[in-house]
């Protein structure tokens, strides 16, 4: 997705609207989460780890198959009580400005592909800047929310580093049997409970001080939510199957009506021919 930095020069009279759909997340089987979100996610989704290069990441598992987000319906509406912060902040993000070299400073940006920010918006919208060319009050709240995400990301990364250094992570392959065969999600990781139990006092103290221990317990306890995802997947599959059967039944009915109509037309044609012959 294309990210555009916001500036007074380019967007002083621009407006934005909130997301009307989460359809853009339909392929997100996982989403990055923060330590601050654990309490909201632990009761609904498995909390898992993924390691990219040397960096350990914290994620919420949203599907049992690659490229499938079970948290939205066919219309793109979120069906669960809690929406992860990474999605709620959209269409806005904090990102580095590619036009400014030699700096890692993040600036306020918007995601162009989501079509929520424009100079002219048809729906009821909110201004990005006020008449004094300062961020509007609503935009200030969005900006503060984005900064809180960035701040908690630093706390989360510190906790994850402690977990990684404790060497208690193990691979976790998730397999599910479907009518057309078995599918597996790879690259997922979880806490090795036995290794966690055998840690020394100093390492446990460090885990507890950084919040890493909370994440460990959240991972262990949340894995039971696999059953929740299975129920959602089964429900969606049954719904699709029912619609398919309804469509097939409708098609058979249409074919029958078409056949009857054709037979009636042939009958009328024959009747007309017979009348003509009688004349």
Give structural attributes.
three-stranded antiparallel β-sheet; 19% strand; flat; disordered C terminus; single chain; 279 residues; alpha+beta; 13 strands
Q: What is the typical, i.e. mean, pLDDT?
A: 88
Helical content band: 40-55%
Give the spatial strand order of the biggest sheet: 1-7-6
Helix segment count?
A: 8
Q: Tell me the structural class.
A: alpha+beta
Question: What percent strand?
Answer: 15-25%
Per DSSP E runs of 2 or more residues, the count of β-strands stands at: 13
The CA-CA distance between the termini, in Å, is 76 Å
Overall geometry: flat
Which regions are unreliable across 5 or more consecutive residues at pLDDT < 50?
A: 275-279
Order of helices and strands: EHEEHEEHEEEEHEEEEHHHH
User: What Rg do the Cα atoms give?
Assistant: 28 Å
Largest sheet: 3 strands, antiparallel
